Amino acid sequence: MKIAVTGSEGFIGRLLTKRLDALGHETIRVDLLHGDDILDLGKLTLLPEFDLAIHLASRLMVPESYSIPHAYYTTNVLGTLNILELCRLRGAKMIFFSSYLYGTPEYQPIDELHPLSPFNPYAQSKILGEELCNAYNRDFGVPVTIFRPFNIYGPGQHPHFLIPNIISQCLTGQVMLKDPRPRRDFIYVDDVVDACIAALSYSGPGVDIFNLGYGKSSSIPDIIHSLQIILDKEIDVHFSHETRENEVLDTICDIRKASALLGWNPKTNLEEGLRKIIASAKNQ
């Protein structure tokens, strides 16, 4: 299969393109590092033909989305529109990555029918992207699979994210963190890539949505406890108890739909994933 991957040099994209290459697919890498711009539709139309676009390229930092909302809406909405238009022109399918849509859970675990409650510009930009996916399917028949991963982690993730930030502090000295209360459903990046591979042969309805997670939530103290076991040392942790506005205190992903329809299940628990990150950091 000929597959275009936007954000091919990013955290997920690097691993995904390697897996696709290993499976014998023809991968078209689309990334700013290659001079590509998802906001330039004219330039995108010069890309080689493809059967499927996996759209990973986006702005990702929730706090930053308050500082530069226009950039987030432009990249995450117009960029998604351009990839959908390219799929329409090519008669191709699309896999779209969304996240952070559910807000404070009304029930747990959170399934795909849970009401959406965006409470920051990043989340709103992703909801608008999903609405465009539905519109392009309704009006032009573009098939779209939407993934809503919960908290992805793994080697090579940007240090501003929670787990790489904690690990970096653990390896270099005292750990200074904010609020110990929130619990998150952490999913290892390889498991997310596995879901993408499973979706390559999926032919469900015009637009289908899958939550991706491990199915269990963990707290910062849980992460610290696992790191103490892995590193075989006591970790000195200080919490400022600073809280974020609209902080969600617990999220658990319902993975039953992805398991039933894609035959996908996560393989990597939190401690195993943390071990892999530390091993990767020590090998660099």
Explained architecture:
By secondary structure, the chain is an alpha/beta fold. The protein has a domain at 2-153 and 188-214 and 254-267: 3-Layer(aba) Sandwich (Rossmann fold), CATH 3.40.50.720. The protein is 42% helix and 17% strand. The chain has helices at 11-22, 41-44, 62-67, 69-90, 121-140, 162-172, 189-199, 220-231, 256-262, 270-283, and strands spanning 2-6, 26-30, 52-55, 93-97, 144-149, 151-153, 175-177, 183-184, 186-188, 207-212, 218-219, 237-239. The strands form four sheets. Strands 2-1-3-4-5-10 form a six-stranded parallel sheet, sandwiched between helices. The chain has a two-stranded parallel sheet with strand order 6-9. Strand 4, helix 5 and strand 5 (144-149) form a beta-alpha-beta unit. The model has no long low-confidence stretch (mean pLDDT 95).
